[in-house]
Design brief:
Layout (H helix, E strand, L loop, with lengths): L5 H24 L2 H4 L2 H24 L5 H12 L3 H13 L5 H26 L3 H13 L3 H14 L6 H11 L2 H15 L6 H10 L1
Helix pairs in contact: 1-8, 1-9, 1-10, 3-4, 3-6, 4-6, 4-11, 5-6, 5-10, 6-7
Length: 209
């Protein structure tokens, strides 16, 4: 009904516009203690990093993957779908004022695991030396809108800056589409995709996750 290109277009809208707007708005308005909740972030990272390390070990020892494939194997095993699934469910269940766990988890996972996987991929294929590796990593990290949006909003929260009403209204309107659009995009993406991974490897990834 929506055409062959609809899933990609809707996913890009959610990834580049709706979710970043929601993350920006939450970071700008939330108490700093909710954003920098180190006990929650530490607990989340402790379990996730342990899972990531276990997945790397299994990918190399059991399936014989080299580093690029192992990094993607580990990312698939550990990465939580807090953005497209967690945030919409928290919004539905608890409302806009109680979504901080899903949003902080999204910010943490994107910053640590997307950046970490990019670092492993860049390091395994780098031919330009340490400087080129660092530049490549930073450029990819800061092109991720789910990382950039909360970083841009963090000074607003830290210094308690009030956003102009037209700006706040527009960002709020755009961010309010994140929940339903993300869930719809997630479902729509399954229409075009088929499972291509070997069943044993897919089973291992799901078991680790």
């Amino acid at each position: 009904m929506l055409g062959d290109a609809s899933a990609g277009a809707l996913n890009r809208f959610v990834y580049y516009f709706a979710l970043p707007a929601l993350l920006f708005l939450f970071t700008a308005r939330a108490p700093v203690a909710d954003i920098l909740n180190w006990s929650f972030i530490g607990a989340f990272l402790l379990g996730s990093v342990a899972t990531f390390a276990a997945a790397i070990a299994i990918g190399q020892s059991v399936f014989g993957h080299r580093l690029p494939a192992t990094a993607l194997f580990a990312l698939a095993a550990v990465f939580p779908n807090t953005a497209y699934l967690g945030i919409p469910l928290f919004l539905t269940a608890y409302g806009t004022n109680q979504t901080s766990p899903a949003i902080v988890a999204t910010m943490t996972a994107n910053t640590v695991f997307i950046a970490g996987t990019i670092a492993l991929l860049e390091w395994s294929t780098d031919r330009t030396g340490q400087k080129g590796f660092a530049i490549g990593l930073l450029s990819k990290l800061f092109l991720n809108p789910l990382v950039v949006a909360p970083l841009l909003a963090l000074p607003i929260a830290l210094f308690d800056v009030s956003m102009p009403s037209p700006v706040a209204g527009f960002v709020e309107l755009l961010g309010s589409t994140a929940g339903p659009a993300a869930l719809f995009a997630l479902g729509l993406s399954f229409v075009e995709r088929r499972v291509a991974a070997p069943p044993v490897e897919l089973g291992a990834i799901l078991s680790i996750k």
